[in-house]
Amino acid sequence: MSGQTVPADFSGHMLDLDEDEDLEVFSKNTSLADGSPMPNSPSSMVNQYRLEDEEEQQDAHTKDIFITVDNPESHVTAIETFIMYRVLTKTTRGEFDSSEYEVRRRYQDFLWLRSRLEENHPTLIVHPLPEKFVMKGMVERFNDDFIETRRKALHRFLNKISEHPILSYSPHFKVFLTAQELTSHRKQGPGFLSRMGETVKAMANSVRGLRSRPEEFTVMQEYVEDFSNKIGSVDKVTQRIIKEQKEYLDELKQYTPTYTQWAESEEELADQLKGVASCVERCSKETEEHIHHLSEVLVPALHEYVLCAETVKAVMRRRDNIQADYEAKNEALASRKADQEALQEEVDGLADRLEQANNALKGDWSRWQDGMRSDLKSAFICSAEKNVEYYEKCLAVWESFLLSQRPEPREQRDFEDAS
């Protein structure tokens, strides 16, 4: 295992700076409609964007916790089958007893960590985990693609927490990264009845409603609702496009043998038919790669922020619940003369809690927006690069076929003389 790990981007690999030099589609002396010169290669534009992003991220903060989630192992017991992941941590923080840790964790352990972070910081935005159950389209629960998709999501979850200025200092996060066994720690959480009580209280508050939510939080809520609708639509449409492209690929793969068989019975067209068959076969491989990229890069990025939108909505509801508690107690204080002193203390405590909740959410809101925009921008740029690369390669395949069909100079002269 290498010493230092760098948090992976959505593509899961570093940008390849060595482009295919045999594709000259964009090296021609062309210009745009407004007369401005066309860039030598779209990929050079992508590289420029990525370098700028990397510089901004390096300037923004210096990481002191590096986490890798890898090496999934299947465990089968008489009761269940589950996957254990290795979690490697390297850190320079003084509160850790060592600079390196290696533990193994299952999905339930990640759920425990996230629930503890939400309980202790109800108005901070804790990055979502992948869904517990199999995503649509998965045939087997623990096939290789599913495990790898989940591993990447768990890796991102922990690195998002490690980059957070408050959550990364949580004692539960430290325990998760360092303790060999979590069983004793997992028993220390609130019981089922306690969680039910919080749920009932939240439902009561939602029915009662708020008297005066601050305008800035109403704006936040409207933004999240709009964002959720848009990112959800893009996610669904992207998955439909991938499904249609897979169907197109299946049809394309039937093309090659048909042209090849046809060439056997058409001597005069044999070379052309074999050439088309070869082109279709090569384009099929490029289409397969393109579909794989969309499935492994763009869809996870979009779906991650579908889940993020739901997380932020839940944070907004918890903030509203705190305000509803405060308003209810304040009304009780105004209507009751007896026990005013005790009620006043409770109201003051809720006022402080509400102020802390508001400040925590406002601070995390801008962090979340910056991270969301950076993540999605990276995913869109990477997808744009792959789209360009896909069409460049397919275009080059068909251009090579056209070049191969050009008559030789002598054949051209003979044709002109005959005419």
Protein described:
The protein has helices spanning 42-60, 107-120, 144-162, 171-178, 183-186, 192-208, 215-264, 270-335, 340-404, 409-418; strands at 65-76, 81-91, 100-106. The chain is elongated and about 105 Å long. 65% of the residues lie in helices and 7% in strands. The chain is mainly alpha-helical. It has ten helices and three strands, in the order αβββααααααααα. Strands 1-2-3 form a three-stranded antiparallel β-sheet. The longest helix has 66 residues, at 270-335.
Q: Percentage of helical residues? A: 55-70%
- N-to-C order of helices and strands: HEEEHHHHHHHHH
Number of helices: 10
Oligomer: single chain
What keywords describe this structure?
3 strands; mainly alpha; 419 residues; elongated; 3-stranded antiparallel β-sheet; disordered N terminus; 65% helix
Short structural summary:
With 419 residues, the protein is mainly alpha-helical.
SSE map:
Blueprint: H1 42-60, E1 65-76, E2 81-91, E3 100-106, H2 107-120, H3 144-162, H4 171-178, H5 183-186, H6 192-208, H7 215-264, H8 270-335, H9 340-404, H10 409-418
Antiparallel strand pairs: 1-2, 2-3
